[in-house]
Design goal:
- It holds the Pfam family Glyco_hydro_36N.
- 21% of the residues lie in helices and 30% in strands.
- It is α+β, with helices and mostly antiparallel strands.
- A hairpin with a 7-residue loop joins strand 12 and strand 13.
Length: 702
């Protein structure tokens, strides 16, 4: 560990990951800038980087686009990553670099750069961290009011960091957008000159966008080219802005909170932002995705080494029409197929017979479960499955005992109406009393029923986002609610180490690296149609790994059951159909594919993923997963149209000199042939619509 007085001692800080280097520099004109972000450099090479990063400066004015945290103030007119109003209405920051702290941490490096305002008692600490076996660089910021008295500082923007993209002839961005039932639709478009902002004001990451962005020069492909990306680890409101200057260069800045929210930093307080992860890949979009996946497996997921069980959930089959006997009947059918986890969904509690009542009253409905849930849970375990439960702790129906007792617990403003969505309101998890109530009830349920899985739902956005007890500081709700959710999940997992949690928000509305640090998987979308899911899952896979992507096989008579299984098996397999209507032939197909999935689950969920062929849903596409000596390929061709699909699919990431054998027919070929001539498909893909296949290869080790 070293701690240095910066002035006259150290001006450059290189950070290296497995394959990349990132260089920060304090310039002669007192700015903290990014000097380099790209392929890994040697220490000697970092010393040769020129301090002058621009050939021309318009009107000799510094360009803040290259700064690590552009502030509001001075000769800056771009996007402020930090905006603070000091007493007297002063909105201009003037920061000096005070000290640095460098230490080795978990096989990587931790760097803290401390800046301080020249007049007001404010410290701004820029944090950096690299980790072993990862190309991701984590950045976050801490703001400290170092005074002991006086007025608070008003923070209107506090991003986690600004990332400069190296100069290129052109720029293109990749992002996802969508809506409920249509999340994660990938788009790649030229980055416009000016500012492109992705944001969300709903209280969660939202269905409409996701807090990540990638930039390339317009020529990158799935397997080749330079790609730079950032992803915000935060499950509340957020803003991510990319800017492109006419003079050249592009940058991305992101952080929690949305425009218009205010945080008042009192004397002696500090505010720490969530991590903003940055990644450079020289191997195209596929290489970037594999690096994101690797980082999630190694450094984010709480129990990545424990592969999720195959679950059955009867929600799409029966909705609210549940009781003990019907659920037990469904459990017997699921166990017969080889399911490992049975989950009781909505409708088990309070006065809950539809979506108009009962939320908040987390005890079994006495008419539907007269003896409570324990008899059902015990019988589920006797069938060889774990027991799971659906909950929506952040919500309450006005028609509930909880709301009648605590109408002040919901997010609201005085003298304003309380708009309902789905006849429900949002509980304020920023309040300690609400958090204690929620944790106590969930902890009791998990312990009493030996619950191994909670499907944690959040089915509506914030509205009238107030916290009356905080008076002039009500906007703290937007940050502290999310922190409250995190705190309860962390406590539950600490107290119940075998508990798994699935994050759900009306489908895929709560998906980010912040929630994945506390959950095992995410409900991808309420749209379980296998054809639509190909598009949704394709966008999901750009950043998030297959292990976290919950994918159900449901009842879609227009799509063959085998095709539905193959689409779901590319992620975290679950079953959601009405098993009472499945024929014996359907049940045989289900048993066969569940058995197969158990055999290939490690390869799919832990393996390196390659997206091959056409865009999913638009032609013949394939997903290849490689783990140690095993390779699994899913080939999907929903609509061949007038032209037949290709006769082969070229594989990737194989040992060119090794011999690979297909486990279904024993055919052998070298990795070189499979990557150039391709894997033959004619005997595996039947003609017509909805053709699909699963092919397994194993590398010879002798």
């Amino acid at each position: 560990m070293t701690s240095l007085a910066v002035h006259g001692v150290r001006r450059t800080w290189p950070l290296s990951t497995t394959n990349t280097t990132y260089v920060v520099r304090w310039t002669a004109d007192n700015r903290l800038v990014q000097q380099y972000w790209g392929p890994r450099l040697s220490p000697a090479e970092t010393e040769t980087i020129s301090e002058d990063t621009y050939l021309t400066r318009p009107h000799e004015v510094p360009l803040e686009i290259e700064e690590q945290l552009p502030v509001d103030g001075g000769l800056r007119w771009g996007i402020p990553a930090l905006q603070i109003t000091f007493p007297g209405g002063i909105r201009s920051l003037e920061l000096d670099l005070v000290s640095d702290l460098i230490e080795q941490e978990d096989g990587g490096q931790r760097l803290d750069l401390v800046l301080a305002d020249r007049f007001f008692p404010l410290q701004v600490v820029l944090h950096y961290r690299t980790r072993e076996n990862s190309d991701v660089i984590e950045r976050w910021t801490t703001l400290r009011h170092t005074g002991t008295e006086g007025e608070p500082f008003t923070i209107t923007r506090a991003d986690s960091g600004n990332w400069l993209i190296p100069e290129r002839a052109d720029y293109r961005y990749s992002a996802v957008s969508g809506a409920w039932m249509a999340e994660n639709h990938l788009r790649r478009e030229p980055l416009p000159i000016g500012e492109l902002t992705l944001t969300n004001r709903t209280g969660n990451p939202s269905h409409h966008a996701n807090p990540w962005l990638m930039i390339d020069d317009g020529t990158a492909t799935e397997g080749h080219g330079d790609v730079w990306g950032v992803a915000l680890a935060w499950s509340g409101t957020w803003r991510l802005t990319a800017q492109r200057r006419f003079e050249g260069r592009a940058a991305m800045t992101a952080g929690f909170g949305h425009d218009g929210t205010v945080w008042r930093l009192q004397a002696g307080e500090e505010l720490t932002t969530p991590a903003l992860l940055g990644l450079y890949s020289a191997d195209g979009f596929g290489g970037a995705s594999r690096s994101w996946h690797q980082h999630a497996h190694t450094h984010i997921l709480p129990r990545s080494e424990h592969l999720p069980p195959i679950l059955y959930n009867s929600w799409e089959a029966v909705g609210f029409d549940i009781d003990e006997q019907s659920q037990l009947h469904a459990a017997r059918q699921a166990a017969d197929l080889g399911v490992e986890l049975f989950v009781v969904d909505d409708g088990w509690f309070g006065k809950r017979i539809d979506d108009t009542a009962g939320l908040g009253d987390w005890w079994p409905n006495p008419d539907r479960f007269p003896h409570g849930l324990r008899p059902l849970a015990d019988q589920v375990r006797a069938l060889g499955m774990d027991f799971g439960l659906w909950v929506e702790p952040e919500m309450v129906n006005p028609d509930s005992d909880l709301y009648h007792r605590h109408p002040d617990w919901v997010v609201h403003y005085p003298h304003r109406r309380r708009d309902e969505l789905r006849t429900q309101l949002v509980l304020n998890f920023a309040r300690q009393d609400v958090r204690e109530w929620a944790h106590g009830r969930l902890d009791e349920l998990v312990a009493e029923l030996d619950i191994r899985f909670l499907k944690w739902d959040m089915n509506r956005a914030f509205s009238q986002g107030g916290w009356p007890e905080r008076e002039g500081d009500q906007d703290r709700l937007w940050i502290d609610h999310t922190r409250g959710v995190y705190a309860i999940m962390d406590r539950l997992r600490a107290d119940h180490p075998r508990l798994r949690i699935e994050a759900c928000s009306g489908g895929g509305g709560r998906l980010d690296f912040g929630i994945l640090a506390r959950t095992d998987q995410v409900w991808t979308s309420d749209n379980t149609d296998a054809y639509h899911r190909q598009t949704i899952q394709h966008g999901f896979s750009q950043v998030y790994p297959a292990q976290t992507m919950a994918a159900w096989v449901t009842d879609e008579p227009h799509i063959p059951l085998e095709y539905r299984f193959h689409v779901a098996m590319t992620g975290n397999l679950g079953i959601g159909g009405n098993l009472t209507t499945w024929s014996e032939a359907d049940r045989a197909i289900a048993r066969q594919h569940i058995t197969l999935y158990k055999d290939i689950r490690t390869t799919v969920q832990r393996g390196r993923q390659h997206r091959l062929g056409a865009t999913p849903g638009q032609g013949l596409s394939a997903l290849q997963y490689t783990h140690d000596d095993d390779v699994v390929i899913f080939v999907l061709h929903p609509h061949p149209g007038a032209q037949p699909g290709p006769a082969t699919v070229r594989l990737a990431d194989l040992d060119p000199d090794a011999l690979y054998r297909t486990l279904d027919d024993g055919h052998q070929a070298t990795g070189r042939l499979l990557m150039t001539n391709g894997l033959p498909l004619l005997d595996r893909m039947r003609g017509g619509h909805w053709a699909s296949a699963v092919v397994r290869l194993r590398r010879h080790t002798s």
